[in-house]
Structures are given as structure tokens and as C-alpha cells.
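User: Could you walk me through two proteins back to back? I'd like the raw sequence and the C-alpha cells for each, with a short line separating them so I can tell where one ends and the next begins.

Assistant: Of course. Protein one, sequence then structure:
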Amino acid sequence: MHLQELKLTNFKNYEFQSLVFSERMNLISGLNGMGKTNLLDAVYYLCMGKSHFQGTDKNVVRKGEEFFRLEGRFLREKSEKIVAKVIPGKQKTIERNDTAYPRISDHVGLLPVVFMAPDDTALALDGSEERRRFIDNTLCQIDHRYLDELVSYNKILEKRNALLRQFSERGGYNPLLLEAYNQQLLAPAAYIFEQRSLFAVRFQPVFNEYYQAICGGAEPVDCSYRSQLDGADFLTLLESSADKDRILQRTTTGIHKDDLIFHLRDLPLKRFASQGQLKSFVLALKLAQYHHLRQEKTQPPILLLDDLFDKLDDRRAGQLIELLVKGGFGQVFITDTHPERAEEMAKKFEGEYRKFVIENGAVN
């Protein structure tokens, strides 16, 4: 699978742009703030139905405009025309071959994609929410039931938390109402926990292999899954935490507390890793994510690598390039602030490549 053509209208800093891509390697160079990352985000949006970065679409539309539109032509077994038409706060439509999806979520997984961005170090440094989002992003592209169960769980959790706040604000306590939400959480939580557990078992060795390839085999790493549901009955956990939940006005136990635990040389990654080690760690996570998606999907994912060489020394950068050249990846997009370095890297790839230079939302 690959993206053949892309048209952007009022997307972030792009007024209008039409581009034709290589099916193998696409290099996007330019100074910081010119729109390199925005171009990758447009590709991601067409694949996932949302921005990789922005919480709401009102932050995606070009300043001073009321709508944005993205159109892409992807080649799978046949050509697929995907269009996103968005008026933030009013209307959002994703069309496949001129037919709108009944639900945006129905589109997720058709066009698998992996996005590596500089701020993805948050995976290692920030709270568990970032790491759960990483797992969910992978599994939602593979399993529509997982996506449905995750949406269902989050909606029920929101209602349960609202009830806990209502108890505090209005006084009184109705355990039967709380029990009703407890029962509704059990089935989606069980499926999500099962799929995350299976994912972690398969993911760890692949992740370790990619990290060793990037760092030259010098540093042992570990990635393990932690959940309150591991070896415990969820209903019992909910009932035993009822008093704590009432005091804090939120649900304190469940799969929304799951985490991935990272170690480097048996030490916590966030406390002991250098900037280069963090970048290598996150790159290995993303490449292992790519591998997992490729194993599960009929189409190879699109790989988006933003500011790839930032904080990588020459040795790690060289090993990464060799890995990308020989690793059997499909279509790749790479941004870099140094056009000469990007050009030298492109020459290492077999077959056609295309190079784009961006300045103030205009592409040459």
C-alpha cells in the first residue's frame, strides 16, 4: 500500500497544495516551522481520521478559515480515494471512494500508519496515558472489536465518574446505581485486558531486536505490561475501591490505569537514559509497532518519521539508515532540516525517491 497523491486545502499552514509521492521513499526538508510536520500530519489524518497532535479539529484548520479538506489517493489492491471534509465544531465527514462512512471509526485500520515525532519521548517520560495510547493506536488499527470495546469502556467510565461527582455535589449515595456501571465495565475491560496482554507478549522480543539493531547491541532493554487486572477479579477491585472512589470522585481501578514499564540496563528508562538513548528507544518502539501492524494487516503500513536524526549520533543514525534500507519497509516519509543529509540518505535506497523542499507552507 502507498499514498500516490495528496491534496491539502486550509490544513494548518497550507492554503492549497497538491503533491505526487514516490511509492518507496519521500524526503521532506526545510527549516523548522515551515510545515514539514504538518504535511506528515495530513497523511496521518487521512489514515486515522484525526490529527496525530491536535486534540480538536479547530486547531487544525488554517488560521482565518472555517473548513479544511484533505484528499488522498492510496493504492491498495486497487486505487482508493479518501477525502476528509471538516468544518470544526459543526461537520466532519470521511469518504471512501465518494461514499461517506456512517462512523469515522469504521475507517480506522483500512490504511495502517505509524508516526514517529520528536515529542514521542513523552512515551518514556510522561505518565501512563501516553503509553496506553500507544498500545491502543496499534490494536485499534488491527481489531475493530477492540476499538468498539475501548469506546464503550470509556463512555461507561465517564458516566461512572459523573455519578461519583454527583454523589459528592448533591449528597447521598446509591450503591445500586454504581453497581450497574460496575457490571457494564466488566465485559469491555476483560476483552481489552486480554488483547493488551497478548500484544505485550508478542511485542517485547521484536522491540528488543529493533533497539539492538539501532544501538549496535550495546544496551539491554525491557518493555513489560502492567495492569491491575492481572491475576485479580475486576468486579472485586471495583467494589473494594468504592469508598476511595467516592472520596476522589473518580474511578481509581481498571484498565484505564494500565501501563508499559520501560527499563534500560535494568534501570528505569526515564531516570537514566540520555537524549540519544531515549530517541533510540522510541524509534525501536515505533519500528516494532510497524512490524506488528505489518504482521497483522494485508497491507504494509505507511511509515512517517519526523525530524528523524534529531538527537542521534552519527553511529546510531547510520545503523538506523541501514535498518530502513534493508528492513523491508513499504512507503516511508522522512523530514529533515538538512537537505544535503536527506539527499545522501536517499541515495542509499534502491529505486525511485522524491525530494520536497518546504518554505512557509509551499512545497517545491
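----
Protein two, same layout:
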Amino acid sequence: MSRSLRSRSAESGVPYEVLEEAIVASLTRASMYLKSAFVSKKPVGLGRGGDVSREFDVVVEKIVYRTLSDYLGDVKLVSEEIGSAGEGSWLAVLDPVDGSANFEAGIPLASISLGISRNRENAKVGDIEAAAVAEVFRDVIYYYDKSSGFKTIGARIERRPSPSNIVLGYFESLESFKPYLNFSKISGLKPRLRSLGSAALDVVYVALGIAMGFVDARARLRNVDLAPSLAIAKSLGAGAYLCSGADATSITIREVARVECVVVGYDEKIARELLKAASSELSP
């Protein structure tokens, strides 16, 4: 696609190149802070999502918001810590540090996820124009926009022709573990189980085939945890559903909200098997 055609593609008239520059600059600056000697892990209160906010969460949120504003002007931010702030023609949905428990403990698996859509009533995941997930400690950014599709920045990583035999998710109770047990019965597979602690990376990994599926039935994730990575995953051919059966692209993003139950599969077949497993009563 030519630069001039790509420049006309964004609905607002803002070139997609500018959206990419804004997102990449935001995530690069925030990642540099997280790997610097200036990081503070001090608790500073409760975020809008209900979890403990630490200073590094708040600082990343500020870095991203200021950088986006420098590139795009007035922006409405929807984020796990602040809830929502500002108004403008653009809507930015942000998880400042996804995997904050990992980061606080010194486990090098955490991400920053950011999606940009037009600021309209009832904006949904499917409205996201551009999105990225930065894997902080590998210096990789997984990037997507509606004009040029998906690419990686910092490493060459492509979608595998078939997924590995791994299911990712959060399994902190019997109820949240049941979908995994049911999936084994429905699919006839015996996938290995892993819980990595960063939902945004989980979803991207599934889309790339690093894992075959992701499931979370705890009702603890929020739209800001998932929205950018879901936009990326759908662009790569992954299937993603709420356990009600609705496509995950219908998740709203104008305010912070909980996601009761979500499944993501490498493709539609796996996603639908996971959906059936999450709503099944097969397990005792």
C-alpha cells in the first residue's frame, strides 16, 4: 500500500503513520522507564480497576498519556489506574503494566498494552484503529493497525502454521479450572497448562501460535487488560469470544469494565471448542 493511500485511511484524516509513531513512542518511553533505576514499587492506593496501584503503574500511565497528547492532541484516556480522563477525538485504552505482580516480584514477564480508536459513543474493541502490546523485557512490540495489518518491532516473529499444545490462562479456583478440563474432553487433546500472569501477552501468544488457547473464567479481568491484544489477535485470524457467545470485538471500551469470562483460540475451531468448554457442565 502506498504511503499516500495509507495516509488517507484513518477515519479522522490523521495518517496511520502518525498513529504508529504515537503508539510506539509511548510504549518505548514507558518501557525504558520500567527498565530504569528510577522505578518505584511503592503502593499509592487503589486503581479504578480495584487492584492496588503502585507508583510504576501511575508513572507509566502518565508517560503514555503525555506522549499520545504530544502526537494526537486532546485524547480521552481509559486506563486501569485513572479510570478515564480527558476528552478528544481519540480514545486510548491502556493497561499501564499488565503483569504488575510479575514486575513487582522481579519476574521478567510483563507488558504494556495500548489501543487507539475514534472517541465515539459505544466504542468497542472492533473500533480500534491501531493497537500494540509491548513485551517490556524482550524489547518487542507487537503492533497492528487497520491499514497495514500486523508486524513486530524489535524482533522477527511470525504466526506459526499450527499452534503448540499449550493452553494459557488463570486457574486460581476449581470454577476457573473447569473450562480447561472440559476442553480436554471436548477436543480429545491433552494440552499442557501454563499461567504466565500477563493476559495481553497470553492473547498475543495464542494468535501467534505459541499457545493454542487462552481461557479466563474468574470475572477479574477488565476490558483495558484485553482490548488492544484482542484487536491484534483478531487481525491474525484468532477466534475470541465472551462466554455468553458474543464475539469479543463487542467488548465496550469507553469506560473501565469487567469481563466476566473470555476465551481465545488460535483459530475459530479451537475458539469454539474453548467456548463450549467454558459453558459446559461436563466436569464434576
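The domain at 3-153 is CATH 3.30.540.10 (Fructose-1,6-Bisphosphatase; Chain A, domain 1).

Let me know if you want the two compared in more detail.
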